[in-house]
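Tokens in:
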């Protein structure tokens, strides 16, 4: 139970530090699942023709037509599954990094088609993917060990999670030469 109203923001900060990236991961996964599932049904995805042209261009014509859309659907559903449920997460994030190159490439490959007479619906889809890319970076950093930690002044008794090394940069203690060498060895 939270005592005073002043403690409510502190509790919110601690909750956000613990859970916000997992919430972001699941939401991003659901987005990829939905967009991937749409591509399995011909005519349901508003960017189907853009996907076909992009994959055909990036694969130098090796993959084209409906096969390009199906390949994209499978990739997006796999990424969505890994993000939503947390299984094979590193593989999903690696595939997401590769997929984002393809997803964002129409900005370079087809700018005149995306921006003729204004911003097209296809251009809007590609632009929203910039946010998906940024979300993927945050999730990847978290998966690789980065952690959000509430500031110490908000929770004086808070300690960094066990997975994080203590911050030695602000320590009033100095290390001896042997200790500094040992510290450098552990960090490298």
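Residues out:
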């Amino acid at each position: 139970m939270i005592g005073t109203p002043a403690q409510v923001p502190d509790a919110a900060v601690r909750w956000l530090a613990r859970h916000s990236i997992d919430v972001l991961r699941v939401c991003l996964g659901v987005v990829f699942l939905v967009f991937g599932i749409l591509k399995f049904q011909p005519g349901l995805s508003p960017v189907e023709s853009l996907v076909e042209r992009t994959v055909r261009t990036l694969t130098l014509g090796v993959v084209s037509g409906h096969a390009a859309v199906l390949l994209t659907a499978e990739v997006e559903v796999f990424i969505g599954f890994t993000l939503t449920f947390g299984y094979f997460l590193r593989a999903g994030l690696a595939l997401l990094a590769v997929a984002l190159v393809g997803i964002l490439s129409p900005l370079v490959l087809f700018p005149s088609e995306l921006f003729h007479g204004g911003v097209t619906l296809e251009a809007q889809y590609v632009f929203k993917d910039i946010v998906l890319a940024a979300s993927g970076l945050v999730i990847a950093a978290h998966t690789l060990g980065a952690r959000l930690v509430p500031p110490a002044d908000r929770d004086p008794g808070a300690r960094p999670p066990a997975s994080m090394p203590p911050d030695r940069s602000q320590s009033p203690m100095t290390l001896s030469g042997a200790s500094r060498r040992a510290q450098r060895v552990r960090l490298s």
